[in-house]
Structure formats: C-alpha cells, structure tokens
Design brief:
The chain is built from 14 helices and 8 strands. It is mostly helical. The chain has a single domain, classed as Alpha/alpha barrel (Glycosyltransferase), CATH 1.50.10.10. The longest helix has 21 residues. Bound molecules: beta-D-glucopyranose (BGC).
Length: 394
C-alpha cells in the first residue's frame, strides 16, 4: 500500500512503430471525444452519463462524471472540467443539512435507512431523481474527491472554491464508508466491495494530502484511510490478488482502479501485479474487458471504459505495447460518427441474457461519456493526444 500515486508518465511510442496514419486516427478520436463530452455538458456543469439512453437520460453520476472530468482535464480543457467540479461541489454543499441529519442518526448509534442516504445519481439541477434507482453507493463520492484534488493540482488551483462540497463528501464517507452498498455496477448491495473501498480510500487520501481539512476532519480521514487499508489487506485479498468483495475469491475489472488511480495498493506491491494479472487473464478478451464473470447485463459484453482502465494500469507499469492494444481496441469500437458505447457484443459472457435488456432499455448506451473520458485518459498516458493542451482546449 502506498502514498498517492504519481502522475503517470507520458510514454514514447516510437519504439512500437505505430504508423503515422493510425496515430492520426487515434488522435482524431480524442478530438471527437472531447467534442462529444463538452457538446453534451449541461450548462450548469453536469456531465450526462449518456444523453439519450432510456435509463440514464437526464441524470449525472459522480462516478462517471469524475472520471470524465479527469479525461477532459488531461485533454487541457480546464474550463469544462472545472465547471463539472463546480457543479459537483455545489450539489454536495446543498446536501449539508441532509448529511448533518444522517450524522446525527449515526451519533445515536443507529444506521440510517438506505432511502435517507445521498443518491447515486443526480438530475442536472442536483436533485434526486423521481425514477427508482439502485441507491445507495459510496464510491462516486470518493472518486469525486480524488478527481477534484487531481484537477486542482494539475491546473494550479486552490481547493477553497470547492471546500463546502469537499467537507460534505468527507463527513459522509468517514461516517458511512464501512456500510455494505451497491458496487460500481449497481449490484450486490449486501456486500462490501473492494473497488468501492479503493475509491473512498483514494479520495480521502487525496484530500488529506491536499491540506484542505480542519484538524478534526483530518484526524477522522486519516483513521478511515488506515482502517480501509487494514480491512482490505485482511479480508479483500485471495490467492494474492484483490477480490470483488470482502470474503470471495472472485475478481472484477474495476479492481485495477485500486492500483491506478486510487493507490490503495502500490504498483510495487505483489498484490497489484497479481490483481492486474487476474483481471487480464479472466476478463480481457483481445483488448476488450468484461466487468466480471457472472455479468448478464446486455449479455455481459466488453466495456470500453474498463479496457482503458486496464490499459492505464499497464501503461503505468511500463507495458506500453499492451496498453496500446487497449487503446486500439477501444478506437475500433467507435461508431461512424466517433461515438463510443458503454459496451459491445463482440464477445458475450451470457449471450442468452442480451435480448431481455434490449427489450427493457433499448440499444446499449451510446455515447457513454465515461467511455470517452477514459479514452482521453489512456490517450494522454500514451502520449497520443494531438498538439499542446492549451491549443486543444481552444
Ligand atoms: C453502470 C454504472 C454507471 C451507470 C451510468 C450503469 O449501467 O453499471 O457503473 O455509473 O450505468 O453510466
């Protein structure tokens, strides 16, 4: 387990002999990704998960948005990413009263009802939706803390502007981090998920290192960071790798986030290598990455954002050729207009379940802004964004 992970270095691809024409095509998809993300950004700053997809339309998730903002920030568009962070901080700050109420219940030794917790997704106005959803999930709050601190550091900004929202997220997470909740995929609310714990850990550690917390919050944050680390070490590792939830030996592709970017496990730790290896061996098929072995959502296809997440990890480990395979695979899934879907059906784990989701929600979410954001992250890590950041954002 390590301190905050250093910014991944930009890698030299010349040695891999990437043809200039393909390099240009990969760069063009980055330009299209930025255009698609910012074209759909709500005037108030929210990034819609997928603008027209039946089940997501009208909603913004902190998980999706924080990773998307990271891609946009790496692309050099501090204005768009900053407006997302303004939206997120404003939305959280407006929940001060709700969180104080939850903390009061906890102070009496009671666990608040799930329905009272903060939502998983928000309307663009920062409200709860009126449609049923799989609330409650804590990872997005940690991911946002990590993203806003990373953004501020990259662009030389102070965090004061977002302090009220940061404090709400810190108070919420330090009080409720250990409760079972839905995972990244909005499933299995009965478990404690290692990728959820990793996101919380990554967010709290980022914010602690940014020196923005008062002493009481800083102490609570430091304790929770240590508790998460010890808990995962004791109950979230099997066969040398991290596990999908505490007490199983299964993996989930989201687990590699515990290495990069969240740094719950340092990349020198054998657990990091074993986790990346287990995910690659069990879930990567020709560059496209499945969520987990039992996944039946749209038949359990390959997810573009997970391909990028694994590629990001591999690039940071110096496995540039493998990382590039993931970027190429993602690019090959783009539609004629350069849109990236959530998942593709080229290799399905449970094909018999695909039709039921098509019937229920229609075609797979396209574009998924999180897919585009992760493409930007991996393209940046591989040094494949065109030109200089200042020029790109214009
Ligand atoms: C995924 C979530 C995601 C949401 C919005 C769901 O299907 O499981 O991870 O946050 O879609 O993109």
């Amino acid at each position: 387990m390590s301190s905050l992970h250093p910014d991944p270095t930009t890698l030299d691809l010349n040695a891999l002999g990437l043809p200039a024409a393909e390099r240009d095509r990969l760069a063009e998809l980055a330009v299209a990704s930025h255009r698609i993300i910012t074209g759909h950004q709500d005037p108030g700053g929210a990034y819609p998960a997928s603008p027209d997809f039946s089940a997501y339309a009208g909603y913004a998730w902190l998980r999706d948005g924080a990773f998307t903002a990271e891609g946009v920030s790496r692309y050099g568009d501090a204005d768009s990413a900053g407006r997302f962070h303004d939206w997120a901080a404003r939305t959280l700050a407006s929940r001060r009263g709700q969180v104080d109420g939850l903390l009061a219940v906890a102070a009496e030794g009671r666990t608040p009802a799930r329905a009272e917790m903060l939502p998983t997704r928000f309307t663009f106005a920062g409200e709860d939706g009126t449609d049923e959803w799989w609330d409650f999930q804590t990872d997005g709050y940690g991911t946002w803390l990590w993203a806003v601190v990373t953004f501020a550091r990259r662009h030389g900004r102070g965090l004061d502007r977002w302090r009220a929202g940061i404090e709400v997220a810190v108070d919420y997470l330090t009080a409720f981090w250990s409760l079972p909740c839905y995972d990244w995929w909005e499933e299995h609310a009965e478990h404690r998920h290692v990728s959820t714990l990793a996101a919380i850990h990554g967010g709290l550690r980022a914010v602690l290192g940014a020196d923005v917390l008062d002493p009481v919050r800083a102490d609570a944050t430091a304790s929770v960071i240590a508790e998460i680390r010890d808990l995962v070490r004791a109950r979230g590792v099997a066969d040398g790798h991290l596990t999908k939830w505490l007490g199983t030996d299964a993996v989930d592709a989201s687990l590699v986030s515990a290495v990069v970017p969240f740094g719950l496990v340092s990349d020198h730790d054998p657990v990091a290598a074993a986790t990346i290896h287990a995910v690659a061996a069990q879930l990567d098929v020709d560059g496209g990455v499945h969520r987990f072995a039992e996944d039946v959502f749209y038949g359990g296809g390959q997810w573009l954002l997970l391909s990028a997440l694994l590629g990001w990890n591999l690039a940071v480990r110096g496995e540039t050729a493998a990382a590039l395979t993931h970027l190429r695979w993602i690019a090959a899934q783009a539609t004629a207009t350069g849109e990236l879907p959530e998942q593709v059906p080229g290799h399905l784990l449970h094909a018999e379940h695909r039709q039921e989701w098509l019937d229920r929600w229609g075609p797979v979410a396209t574009p998924l802004l999180w897919s585009h954001g992760m493409y930007l992250v991996l393209a940046d890590v591989l040094g494949l964004l065109p030109g200089e950041p200042e020029e790109r954002a214009r």
